[in-house]
């Protein structure tokens, strides 16, 4: 295969190098396009065909339904690894040894505390505040209590910032939920595993002397967090990278990522899916009616949890989560009619020509909310749980971007507004 691409503009041929990744993905390197073509640029709304960076973290092949973190398949990691191991793998590039993992966890635990003034900020939010808004604000607020920006030239400073946020973030997540539920805030238990501690911080009741871990919940949350841990250059991750590219700090970049994740077309879909399934149930369970609405171009309704920018065959995470939903609900002895509605909708959609033609399949969020609900997590906390899982991915991508010394993100545009015109005084308009 040729290693250049030719773009002909007004009869002038311009050659551009081809860039080939380790999985043989090919990209045209247009970084010199404007210089060689006298200012011509590209337009690609939604960046559907634009590679913003090269990255060694996550590989996904949307046609084949492949997802790998640092070369390991998501299926294998979801089955054999735990969340903290996966976090280490994503951030530092290799699976940790026992000693490395123990040190990593010990260092995280040292930072599992937040300044008491953060409680005051949390208290100032109305009870009705959406947990994603609260989480994004509190993450940003952490910069006030940890003001020094990271010197990315120093491995030690970089490492310290990483363990600090991994220690503090679960507290913010748990407190956001406890505030919502009117429960007293609680710091957690350093004798526990990372995920066990998160569950205890979220669910320990004031009248309980001893919180008893339910291994079904620990395993379910571990798996969900692993499945959400990274997904290369999606909306929130690109946001983290682009904010970080201005050399804003790690916490500020993460806070922006949380806001990007919030929307219903991205991480907010898990909440939207459950609300949609509830609405269908309340409306008598007529899935055909909602299929019709989803296909009607005059109706803004979309089948939430369906479709994906890159997966055009199946989302491997959705496959794992569908099995997990059955297992978790079975193990907990929960019978949820919503699960049946979800399965019915999936079956109909997979057989429907509209969905087949557009290659629309259930995505990671279609079944995750059903598991979160069975675990006792409020619906508007679902996207917060997604953020908790995505944290190591955002950190890994931010770290990679800074270590590679990437330039500030600053796309071009093509202007389509008014040409220059003379100002008219208000009386003459
Ligand atoms: N229901 C009905 N029709 C859909 C859906 C859906 N969920 N998703 C896409 N389509 C249709 C579009 O109307 C469009 O049809 P057309 O070609 O006739 O105009 C076609 O499929 C392509 O859709 P686009 O919106 O162009 O695809 P895009 O890649 O821009 O969007 C997205 C992907 C945002 C995920 C979209 O499928 C969607 O809105 N899904 C529902 C929300 C959702 O589940 N988001 C979570 C994604 S996973 C994640 O972020 C963690």
From TrEMBL:
Keywords recorded for this protein, A-Z: Acyltransferase, Transferase, Tricarboxylic acid cycle
CDD domains in UniProt: EcCS_like (cd06114)
PROSITE patterns reported in the protein's UniProt record: CITRATE_SYNTHASE
GO molecular function: citrate synthase activity
One Gene Ontology term from the biological process aspect of the record: tricarboxylic acid cycle
One cellular component (GO) term of this entry: cytoplasm
Pathway: Carbohydrate metabolism; tricarboxylic acid cycle; isocitrate from oxaloacetate: step 1/2
Superkingdom of source: Bacteria
Family named by the database record: Belongs to the citrate synthase family.
NCBIfam families (alphabetical): cit_synth_I, PRK05614.1
Listed name of the protein: Citrate synthase
Lineage of producing organism: Bacteria, Pseudomonadati, Bacteroidota, Flavobacteriia, Flavobacteriales
